[in-house]
UniProtKB/TrEMBL annotation:
InterPro entries: AB_hydrolase_1, AB_hydrolase_fold, AB_hydrolase_sf
All residue ranges annotated as the AB hydrolase-1 domain in the record: 20-243
A Pfam family: Abhydrolase_1
Protein name, entry field: Pimeloyl-ACP methyl ester carboxylesterase
Highest taxon, organism lineage: Bacteria
Signal peptide: none
Length: 257
């Protein structure tokens, strides 16, 4: 299904009945990353998956997609569906969007789970890496995407999930260069949202101990500082693949609690 947002349309899926759960994918991902989660969670809940700006079947609206603008697109979908309150689960970039949504529309947030995500802003080193990647995207996009996807997995799981990684690369390459750069810029410019996280009563962080994108130690400290419960998994950045069963259990418990 689609809904008009500014000069483009936003694609979403709507599955099941019950309490509303909104799933927000990460960078270079789209709603299909949630297929297994939807199958599980939608048995007792209404699950909304949204393709964020410049990803999946949702178009771009400029050359910078701020997390706030993506949050506005999410709000437009929820208004279309007449959903007043929902639990949000955001993977990586999706977590940044969920926090931006909570900052703007806190009354619409029943709970928030940061999955392989953080309320922290990019470090200066990460900002420089994003700028370099954006330049590379203009010249050698396919190589950049293939390399990026492999790095999301823990080193010891890459061989085990080699076929899945190939499929994810194919899906990631459907993201246009414009969508890549606009989202990357939005993430680079985002601000610290630690205070926003603490305004949400029902919250959870899920982290992979071998995550090469987000420092596990940093997430543990953030969890302690914000008094946010933390579920620790043994994998890298792709918990929904590398630790699927453990993740499904954690998300089911979070939604149910």
């Amino acid at each position: 299904m689609i809904v008009k947002f500014k000069e483009t349309t936003v694609f979403y899926t709507d599955t099941g009945k019950g309490n509303s759960v909104v799933l927000l994918h990460g960078f270079l991902e789209n709603n299909t990353m949630w297929n297994t989660v939807v199958e599980k969670i939608s048995k007792r809940n209404r699950v909304i998956c949204i393709d964020l700006l410049g990803h999946g079947k949702t178009g771009s609206i400029g050359y910078i997609h701020s997390m706030e603008e993506m949050a506005e697109a999410v709000k437009t979908v929820l208004q279309e569906l007449k959903i007043r309150r929902a639990i949000f689960i955001g993977h990586s970039m999706g977590g940044y969007v969920a926090l931006a949504f909570a900052e703007k529309y806190l009354k619409n947030v029943k709970g928030l789970c940061l999955l392989n995500s953080t309320s922290q802003a990019d470090s200066e080193e990460r900002k420089k890496l994003r700028l370099r990647a954006n330049e590379m995207a203009k010249e050698n996009y396919e190589t950049l995407v293939k390399m990026s996807i492999g790095n999301l997995f823990a080193e010891q799981t890459r061989e085990q999930f080699s076929e899945v990684i190939d499929k994810i690369r194919i899906e990631a390459l459907k993201t246009p260069v414009r969508g890549y750069i606009a989202a990357s810029e939005g993430m680079r410019l985002r601000e610290n949202k630690e205070e926003v996280l603490q305004t949400i009563d029902k919250r959870l962080m899920i982290a992979g101990k071998q995550d090469s994108i987000l420092s596990y130690e940093s997430v543990v400290k953030e969890s302690n500082r914000t008094n946010t419960p933390l579920v620790e998994l043994p994998n890298g950045h792709m918990s929904h693949i590398e630790a699927k069963e453990e993740l499904l259990e954690a998300l089911t418990n979070f939604v149910k609690s």
